[in-house]
Design a protein that fits this description.
Layout: H1 2-5, E1 8-11, E2 17-20, E3 33-39, E4 43-50, E5 55-58
Antiparallel strand pairs: 1-2, 3-4, 4-5
Length: 61
């Protein structure tokens, strides 16, 4: 199950974006895993903090 907590990103064959967020419970002491999402007409941008990776998810035609 810890693989799920490590996070990940993929786009499936239908163009759907899948972003698994890093789990805070996997963070060592004095570290974090959080972020915020900015929403645009053609994309989502996840701005990660500390152990959470930032990701840009662009919507295709």
């Amino acid at each position: 199950m810890d693989v799920i907590h490590r996070g990940g990103y993929s786009i499936d064959s239908h163009g759907v974006h899948h972003r698994v967020l890093e789990a805070a419970l996997e963070c060592p002491p004095k570290s974090n895993a959080y972020g915020h999402v900015d929403v645009y007409d053609d994309r989502l941008i996840l701005f990660g903090t500390d152990r959470m990776a930032s990701t840009e998810m662009v919507f295709g035609p």
